[in-house]
Design brief:
Layout: E1 2-11, E2 20-30, E3 35-39, H1 46-53, E4 61-66, E5 69-70, H2 76-80, H3 84-87, E6 88-91, H4 95-98, H5 105-115, H6 123-132, H7 149-161, E7 167-171, H8 179-196, E8 199-204, H9 207-213, E9 216-221, E10 224-230, H10 231-236, H11 241-248, H12 256-259
Parallel strand pairs: 3-8, 3-9, 6-7, 7-8
Antiparallel strand pairs: 1-2, 1-4, 4-5, 9-10
Helix pairs in contact: 5-6, 5-7, 6-7, 7-8
């Protein structure tokens, strides 16, 4: 579905200084229905990669192949009319900031239906989407500030699903939520991915979320990929020093590598 090849992003900070390279030579693929986690600490470049794939940010080099078309080379004006504009949708970290304050939840979900699906009367579809994300219909008349964090997150997901995308780029979508609310949103996303056969690029720094959501991962450090492969293999035995450091810093996940030995013979004298 998606193939990223040698993606890079550089920012020029002044006329007489070298450009700052935020992302350098990033490559990965996502198959239909797959959740790939893009992980790393703050400042690793993962959000920059996510925004380039969604075309919210122009890449400096490399290719973004979606359905074999290099969408990274399309001009912003032409991309508005490209099918990928509808088929790739972005879910932001803070749904409260991503939602327009003067639009109700209903209008936030209806907006892409009117613009991208050209529905004159989107009410029926909005109600279907609200039901799909477990958002009570009586909340659709409320404005973002009248909703809880979890409710705003559900509105953001419903809005992203409205154009019937094939790929969701999820940039820390549960980072600002309480743990109990986060669990519900993650469960919802996983069910939607399987039922709708959506591809996910899941950007996160939380290794517990990675364990729950993804089958493969790409680990970034200082704008570069330092490790990529199976999530299970990474959580049991990271290959890179940076990956091992991250795993040691996540107390709940340091036990994952021990699970392989739970049923092994105890050492002599134990």
């Amino acid at each position: 579905m998606l193939k990223v090849d040698g993606l890079a992003k550089a920012y020029r900070t002044g006329w007489f200084t070298k450009p700052f390279v935020a992302v350098h030579d990033v490559s990965f693929e996502i198959a239909p229905g797959e959740c790939l986690a893009l992980i790393g600490e703050s400042g690793s470049g993962k959000t920059t990669v996510a925004r380039m794939i969604s075309r919210l940010l122009k890449s400096s080099a490399g290719r973004i192949l979606f359905d074999d078309e290099d969408i990274g080379s399309i001009s912003p004006r032409a991309f508005i009319r490209n099918p990928a504009r509808r088929l790739i949708q972005h879910v932001f970290q803070d749904a409260g900031e991503a939602l327009t304050p003067h639009l109700t939840a209903f209008d936030a979900i209806a907006d892409p239906l009117r613009r991208l699906k050209h529905l004159r009367d989107p009410r029926g579809r909005v109600l279907e989407l609200a039901e799909a994300v477990l958002l009570p219909a009586d909340l659709l008349a409320r404005y973002p500030h009248q909703l809880s964090g979890g409710q705003r997150a559900r509105v953001g997901i419903a809005r992203a699903l409205a154009p019937e995308p094939l790929l969701l780029v999820l940039d820390e979508p549960t980072a600002s939520l309480d743990v109990s609310v986060q669990a519900g949103i993650l469960k919802l996303l996983d069910e939607l991915r399987m039922r709708l056969k959506l591809g996910f690029l899941f950007v996160t720094h939380d290794l517990e979320v990675v364990r729950l959501m993804s089958s493969r991962l790409v680990l970034m450090q200082e704008g570069k990929v330092v490790e990529a492969g199976s999530t299970t293999e990474f959580l049991c035995a990271p290959k890179s020093p940076y990956g091992r450091m991250l795993l040691r810093a996540a107390p709940r996940l340091t036990l994952v590598s021990d699970k392989a030995n739970e049923h092994s013979e105890p050492a002599a004298g134990v």
